[in-house]
Q: What sequence folds into this?
């Protein structure tokens, strides 16, 4: 729901912020608009992209915004071992593909595996995530040519 609302433009983003109980600022709107592009952004790349349109914006301000957006359910965070975490607009359930060479992340619509009820009888398992790891199209030729 959040992805669609933010993707519909400024008015929808304003409504999302207000519905989440967050103050509407030009910086928050811009960060949401950058995230609405559908890419995965680390804090530095998100700050740089938003700063291009705003003129000034600090990484600390973006960290603070992202914390509030996470708490409000507007964005999702994906941890990449060995690289900074990336953020995206919260949306329908999906998995991720991670390039082990450059850290690129892409969304993958894939059903999670069957939960292991009988293998973990004392657990209350409610969900599972899959991360597909490999080389992205940009890194495959580099590795193949070198190796």
A:
């Amino acid at each position: 729901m959040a992805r669609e609302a933010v993707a519909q433009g400024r008015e929808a983003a304003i409504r999302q912020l207000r519905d989440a109980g967050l103050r509407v600022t030009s910086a928050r709107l811009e960060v949401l608009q950058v995230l609405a592009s559908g890419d995965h952004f680390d804090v530095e790349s998100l700050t740089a992209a938003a700063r291009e349109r705003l003129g000034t914006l600090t990484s600390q301000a973006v960290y603070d915004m992202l914390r509030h957006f996470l708490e409000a359910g507007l964005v999702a965070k994906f941890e990449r071992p060995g690289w900074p975490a990336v953020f995206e607009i919260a949306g329908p359930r999906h998995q991720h593909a991670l390039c082990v060479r450059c850290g690129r992340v892409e969304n993958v619509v894939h059903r999670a595996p069957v939960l292991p009820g009988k293998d973990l009888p004392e657990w209350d398992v409610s969900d599972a995530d899959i991360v597909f790891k490999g080389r992205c199209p940009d890194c495959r030729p580099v590795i193949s040519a070198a190796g």
